[in-house]
Amino acid sequence: MTERTVITTRGLQLLARLASGAEQLEFTGVKVGTGVVPDGTDPAQLMHLVSYKMDGMIADYGYDQETDDAFVVMQITNAGITSGFVMTEVGLFAMDPDRGEILYAYVDLSEDPNYIMPEENGRAKTVQIKMHVVVGEAADITATINPLSQVTMEAFQRELGKKTDSEGGDISDAVAGFETPGAEIKYPELEPGGSVKGILGGIRRWLETLKKEKVTADGGEAGETTATFEDYTGANPAPSVETALAGIRSKGKTGNILSNIKAALMGLVTLGEMRKYLVNNGLCTEPGKFFLDAAYGKTLMDEITRLNGEAMKGAAKSPSDLNQATALGGYYFSNTGFSNLPVSRAGFLLVFGQSSSRFAQLYVTDAGTIYVRGRFGSGFTEWVSV
């Protein structure tokens, strides 16, 4: 159990009731929020999140023999989120026979928050947190697994390790036999619930038939088929290499695939042809025609490295207060005796932007963590962990 996970008073009262083992401890769900426990408030007295944001999903649960407590795996996805937020608290809820659903455990993430970014271009991301919680003498625990949650690696490995058949026996060392269908059946149906030897026999017959007949997608013989496709030897112009490569897709028509392969090959240049387009000096001004010579590329990279080194030598002297670091450039803070640091760690500050009143500050600590804030006028925004 992490130091920031607290069993609430109602959670402890529920454990006392379940100590006899007559009833289950049932975890019903998780919720996340953006609030912070007020000063002077005992998190154990909370009955709900300080500032609820959205529901999470229970993906796995169980009893950890090594830590002698229970665990619940919580997942949260940014699918459908249009505005990002900083997650600072997590609540684990359980069913109380008398009170109904209660806040069983509270996890304070305010010192190490997680930024939940909005969904971008239809690509969703999932954040997963494994919470260890005390369950006392409760002999039986259960949880409501959300069917939309992702299977955790631990759950997958547990199920994979069972390797049991439908009767619960271990088949990891079983010798598999084949039940081959009749010779007249070329492509037998592979039905769910069939016997292992029947399914294996069916798969074997499929492979034998495919190897023998070399069938097309429509089931016809393809061994001696003559392919017809556009080879661009006539008046039709070949598409660009990029267009041709994009047209080579799985499950496409054979003629289209062959045409795109021919166009792509026509658009490629040989190594000998490429050499006359190599640039080994900085005098070329015609875009899109020439390639960069590798040796000259290294010369350019060395010059960039040298210029960066000169820039670092001219970095501004670090002020005692980060609010005074308004000049664009780099600053290094060798100890923690400075005001308005995001965390009490040494690090490097980069100031970049438009002017001394409209800029951003990026702070990289000696532990590798990154924080950022901005100034748009007279005041600074809060530091945010990236």
Topology:
Layout: E1 5-7, H1 9-18, E2 25-33, E3 52-55, E4 57-64, E5 69-77, E6 85-87, E7 89-96, E8 100-108, E9 114-116, E10 126-133, E11 141-143, H2 153-162, H3 196-213, H4 241-246, H5 254-267, H6 271-275, E12 278-279, E13 291-292, H7 294-313, E14 329-333, E15 347-353, E16 358-365, E17 370-376, E18 384-385
Parallel strand pairs: 2-11, 12-13
Antiparallel strand pairs: 1-8, 2-3, 2-7, 4-5, 5-10, 6-9, 7-8, 14-15, 15-16, 16-17, 17-18
How would you characterize the overall build of this protein?
The chain is 22% helix and 26% strand. A hairpin with a 3-residue loop joins β7 and β8. The protein has 386 residues and is an alpha+beta fold. The chain folds into 5 domains: 5-161, no CATH class; 171-225, no CATH class; 229-268, no CATH class; 270-314, no CATH class; 315-385, no CATH class.
Summarize this structure briefly:
The chain is an alpha+beta fold and 386 residues long. It has helices spanning 9-18, 153-162, 196-213, 241-246, 254-267, 271-275, 294-313; strands spanning 5-7, 25-33, 52-55, 57-64, 69-77, 85-87, 89-96, 100-108, 114-116, 126-133, 141-143, 278-279, 291-292, 329-333, 347-353, 358-365, 370-376, 384-385. The strands form five sheets. Strands 1, 2, 3, 7, 8 and 11 form a six-stranded mixed sheet that branches. The protein has a five-stranded antiparallel sheet with strand order 14-15-16-17-18, with no helix packed on it. A three-stranded antiparallel sheet has the order 4-5-10, with no helix packed on it.
